[in-house]
Amino acid sequence: MIRLAVFDCDGTLADGQANICQAMALAFADAALPAPDPRAVRRIVGLSLPQAVARLVPDSDLALHDAVADGYKRHFRAMRTNGGLVDEPLFPGIADTLTALLDRGWRLGVATGKSDRGLALLLAHHDIARHFVTLQTADRHPSKPHPAMLHAAMAEAGAEAQATVMIGDTSFDMVMATAAGVRAIGVAWGYHPPAELAAAGADALCDDAADLPALLDLP
């Protein structure tokens, strides 16, 4: 039986909050909006960009949402060009955890609100792209918590729902997992608190990346 572990990216594999908050603040400034509260920005990490912006400025029209989203992408690209990926480190223990899961026979995937390009750059920078058999991004799917990313990941990996696990740090990940009929594991080192992950349907919570392999092997 093929076992598939699908990871969220920002807040689960890597800590991109510094870049995300900075790019969003610059995009808001371009649109003559007051800077968003960084806590509010962290709350929407994981959503596709249009949905994220709409949550931050819900009383504005679609044109403004699009302008802020375009500004965010422009500034994020500039930050990558000028500063590389120094502000997107892997969380402690993640690299060893991925290797341990592969050694235990798991296939690995990613389901993220990042773009194809952004995810590819991050994985290449940390030399972990080779670990994953399926990569699902916001470029090709509806925003989380729609289950399309997980459906596509399972199809590409050849895994059934009962042998698939979604690992993420937000309620969006937990709801997506439930909608796809897969097990949901919430991680405590990301952007939504553990109590919120539990309320959103997490089957288990993990405080330390080193504990993930044993936790995933539980029935």
Write the layout of secondary structure elements.
Blueprint: E1 4-7, H1 17-30, H2 38-43, H3 49-56, H4 62-83, H5 94-103, E2 107-111, H6 116-125, E3 132-136, H7 148-157, E4 164-168, H8 171-180, E5 183-187, H9 194-199, E6 204-206, H10 212-217
Parallel strand pairs: 1-2, 1-4, 2-3, 4-5, 5-6
Helix pairs in contact: 1-4, 3-4
What would you note in describing this structure?
The chain has helices at 17-30, 38-43, 49-56, 62-83, 94-103, 116-125, 148-157, 171-180, 194-199, 212-217, and strands spanning 4-7, 107-111, 132-136, 164-168, 183-187, 204-206. Helix 6 (116-125) links the parallel strand 2 (107-111) and strand 3 (132-136). Helix content is 47%, strand content 12%. The protein is globular. Strands 3-2-1-4-5-6 form a 6-stranded parallel sheet, sandwiched between helices. It is built from 10 helices and 6 strands, in the order βαααααβαβαβαβαβα. It is an alpha/beta fold and 219 residues long.
